[in-house]
Amino acid sequence: MRQATVYIDSNALQYNLNRVKQLAPTAQIVSMVKANAYGHGVKDCLAALADSDAFGVACLEEALEIRALGYQQPITLIEGIFSSDEMQIAVDNKIEVIVHQQQQLDWLRAHKDAYLANDLKVWVKLNSGMNRLGFKVPEIIDVINSLKAEGFSCVLAMHFANADADNHPLNDQQRVQFLQVKEACAPVMGSCCNSAAIYKWPELNFDFVRPGIMLYGASPFADKTVHDLDLKPVMTFTAEIIALNSIQAGESVGYGSTFVADKAMDLAIVSTGYGDGYPRAFPKQNYVVVNGQPTRVIGRVAMDMIAIDATGLDLKLGTEVELWGQNRLVDDVAEANGTIGYELLCRLSARPSRKTK
Ligand SMILES: Cc1ncc(COP(=O)(O)O)c(C=O)c1O
């Protein structure tokens, strides 16, 4: 059997969840498990994250999967529902919605009695400058105050566009608007912190924090590693060596013959490629770790295979190579590929086998 394997470390997930608890001790934790738990596999991740106060997902299908697996915690649809018929399903399954535009308010109001009877909160999204979803100031103040007057229990929700950046002017604008609306609608619950904001602005944790990437042990910051943040990588992606070769100076490797050896060298061929979700672009030199040692990826990444420099490494057929994990951080692989850890984790294909410990 072809060996490309994704290992999920449940203890690391629990460790990272505890880090959120340390950093935001008074807030409820809405663990973001959208996109199949950032590519980690929602079923096993939910088991490890069962101590979360609530879960956050991007659509009704993801929420229903959580219910089907038997979890009873509140679930928030962070983009709300996408059609009126989804509202009844959300209510029946005790799923909370965000409202970010008028049509969603109408759908909510059409199901008001059932929504309130099920004791569901409504999350109202502030657009404070990210300009994707939400009501702007001052409209949102009317929206929240009207919903409150109708008996709804509201959470003022906002998402920072630059929580990972130091001194971005939009951070101040977003924070100020959030606080302004919170005061104008007082008392109202609040939620504006993702992973980066949980680290940066403990004073903004309020009632609910919404950690995503930090739970999975990748860094929200370009200039801080998960080790700096005291987080543990949850996913280790490995593949096995399936062939060993030697080439002479002047010989090339792989599609496009982009790599030409300048001296004699040994190669190991590893059973992974972009068909598994291992990225192909690599504008910078990329590395894997084998037997605890970093070594170069050589030539182009193909659909099913990569070549690595095996010179002086005494590698064997069947040796497991770490593509990312504890020793080769997914954030570093992403950086070499001109992207972010989030994307590499989410775009793993279904092909690698999965093992949870
Ligand atoms: C509304 C919202 N909250 C929280 C998160 C979690 O963000 P992060 O993974 O950076 O912690 C996301 C992720 O995209 C989001 O869209």
Automatic annotation (TrEMBL):
Active-site residue numbers: K34, Y255
Sequence positions bearing N6-(pyridoxal phosphate)lysine: K34
Catalytic activity, reaction form: L-alanine = D-alanine
HAMAP family, alphabetized: Ala_racemase
Any one biological process term the GO annotation gives: D-alanine biosynthetic process
Pathway(s): Amino-acid biosynthesis; D-alanine biosynthesis; D-alanine from L-alanine: step 1/1
SMART domains documented for this protein: Ala_racemase_C (SM01005)
GO molecular function, a single term: alanine racemase activity
InterPro entries assigned to the protein according to its UniProt record, in alphabetical order: Ala_racemase, Ala_racemase/Decarboxylase_C, Ala_racemase_C, Ala_racemase_N, PLP-binding_barrel
Cofactor (UniProt): pyridoxal 5'-phosphate
Ranges of residues in domain Alanine racemase C-terminal: 234-357
Signal peptide boundaries: none
Keywords: Isomerase, Pyridoxal phosphate
Protein's name in the database: Alanine racemase
Organism listed in the record: Acinetobacter pragensis
Family, per entry: Belongs to the alanine racemase family.
